[in-house]
């Protein structure tokens, strides 16, 4: 049952959940609900698993999965690198004094001002996504390392992958139509910059490792073409992120070290087969590091029983703190934090507090039959793409993120207040209200 929980999760003799040595009931009392509980040890352990295979500098944590100052500080201590994809993520890293040289800047439409910010900060790598961007880089006068983002025509989804002939994507340069070749040629010629290699990200929540094999094969063939025709030798190969995690008990979280080792062997095999120098392998994991590191605690409120139809258990958060079920039909589990071993009752629907029928966190979940108002509900595996996609729908303030470690809890992102929500509002005459 604890497989989808952070590594430090335990159940006490009286059925209480503890994470990082802290009792969930006490965390909720101290910090209120909803609250995202972030287990530092799980985050560090999973980050270190990547670093153990590739070396820490070659692991660019994908900030889009969850980015805040404290996380950037943790990454810096671990010696990892960081992938940012907006000026906001870059600003967060810089506020944390994260070394800019270990930052790679992504994005399919980086603006001039974002590129200027990158220049001023001394960002170490830019992953180039379009011809327009190459012009913008030259215009801004950036002098940095460049990687060209390739769409290799391999698209991986959960449990399957497909080969997309026409490479229908807003990201990067396609292989099939020769655009990628042209991009390498032009990137080699950007004054003051050094093209160091190629990048590809084939999808997220991937369980099918064969998708990576195919992408590597295509990238090796392309590397061979550009070596022969342009004399360019790719020193770096960044294969993006994408490794999946389990959100429910019927899924399995793939082993990080094994998976990365397999990708690394594929790179070696495919490049060697073409007598190419083996590039240094880089990756950009997000979900597989931070996803299992956090849980969300909610307080149960209204319990509405519709006999013969369904029971709705409504909590004090919902689609504003976790939009994934509404957006992607993402599945989660739920438990009651002080009755972790309780016998499960009939299925109920765990719903949020937003004014929308689609605001459902889990459609059919077994909770104890005596579930009632005031119970503390825990939803595990909420570390990735929850807080980072949180919003203020219905003017609901975002929850805090509380880090737990060795029996201590520390707020690393404060709870948003109604004053925060109103901070940007102005009266009809443009003046500040209140
Ligand atoms: N690198 C690039 C270029 C990416 O676009 C992404 C994710 C990553 C790395 C990190 O991938 P990960 O290891 O986290 O799978 N909001 C969606 C996920 C979108 C992923 C976008 N790109 C979700 O909640 O499932």
Describe the model.
There is one protein chain. The N and C termini lie far apart (49 Å). The protein has 434 residues and is α/β, with parallel strands linked by helices. It has two domains: 2-38 and 291-422, Beta Barrel (Lyase, Ornithine Decarboxylase, Chain A, domain 1); 40-290, Alpha-Beta Barrel (TIM Barrel). Strands 4, 16, 17, 18, 19, 20, 21, 22 and 23 form a nine-stranded mixed beta sheet that branches. The chain has helices at 24-31, 40-54, 69-78, 87-95, 112-121, 131-140, 179-188, 210-230, 256-273, 287-290, 324-328, 418-422, and strands at 10-11, 17-19, 22-23, 35-39, 60-62, 81-84, 103-105, 125-128, 145-151, 154-157, 160-163, 173-174, 194-199, 236-238, 280-282, 294-306, 310-315, 335-336, 344-351, 360-368, 376-380, 401-405, 408-413. The longest helix has 21 residues, at 210-230. The model has no long low-confidence stretch (mean pLDDT 96). Helix content is 29%, strand content 25%. The radius of gyration is 23 Å and the shape is globular. Bound molecules: ligand LLP. The site of ligand LLP has 21 residues, from helix 10 and helix 11.
């Amino acid at each position: 049952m604890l497989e989808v929980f952070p590594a430090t999760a335990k159940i006490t003799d009286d059925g209480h959940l503890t994470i990082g040595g802290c009792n969930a009931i006490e965390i909720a009392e101290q910090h209120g609900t909803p609250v995202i509980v972030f287990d530092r040890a799980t985050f560090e352990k999973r980050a270190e698993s990547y670093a153990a295979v590739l070396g820490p500098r070659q692991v660019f944590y994908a900030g889009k999965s969850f980015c805040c100052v404290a996380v950037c500080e943790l990454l810096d201590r671990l010696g990892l690198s960081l992938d940012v994809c907006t000026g906001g993520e870059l600003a967060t890293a810089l506020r944390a004094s994260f070394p800019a040289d270990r930052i790679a800047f992504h994005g399919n439409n980086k603006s001039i001002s974002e590129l200027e910010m990158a220049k001023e900060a001394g960002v170490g790598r830019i992953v180039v996504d379009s011809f327009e961007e190459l012009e913008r880089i030259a215009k801004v006068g950036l002098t940095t390392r460049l990687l060209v983002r390739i769409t290799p025509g391999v698209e991986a989804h959960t449990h399957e992958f497909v080969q997309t002939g026409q490479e229908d994507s807003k990201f990067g340069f396609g292989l099939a139509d020769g655009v990628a070749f042209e991009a390498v040629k032009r990137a080699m010629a950007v004054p003051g910059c050094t093209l160091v290699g190629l990048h590809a990200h084939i999808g997220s929540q991937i369980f099918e490792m064969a998708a990576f094999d195919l992408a590597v094969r295509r990238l090796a063939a392309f590397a061979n073409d550009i070596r022969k025709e342009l004399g360019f030798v790719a020193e770096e190969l960044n294969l993006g992120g994408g490794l999946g995690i389990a959100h429910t008990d019927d899924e399995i979280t793939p082993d990080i070290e094994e998976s990365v080792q397999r990708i690394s062997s594929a790179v070696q095999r495919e490049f060697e087969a073409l007598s190419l120098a083996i590039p240094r392998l880089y990756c950009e994991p997000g979900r597989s590091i931070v996803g299992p590191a956090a849980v969300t605690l909610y307080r149960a409120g209204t319990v509405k029983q519709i006999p013969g139809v369904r029971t709705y258990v409504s909590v004090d958060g919902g689609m504003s703190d976790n939009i994934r079920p509404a957006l992607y039909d993402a599945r989660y589990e739920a438990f009651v934090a002080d009755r972790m071993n309780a016998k499960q009752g009939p299925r109920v629907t765990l719903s949020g507090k937003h004014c929308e029928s689609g605001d459902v966190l889990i459609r059919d979940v077994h909770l104890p039959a005596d579930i009632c108002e005031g119970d503390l509900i825990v939803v595990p595996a909420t570390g990735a793409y929850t807080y980072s996609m949180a919003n203020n729908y219905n003017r609901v303030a975002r929850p805090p993120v509380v880090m737990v470690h060795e029996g201590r809890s520390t707020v690393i992102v404060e709870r948003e207040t109604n004053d925060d929500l109103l901070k940007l509002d102005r009266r009809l005459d443009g003046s500040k209200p209140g």
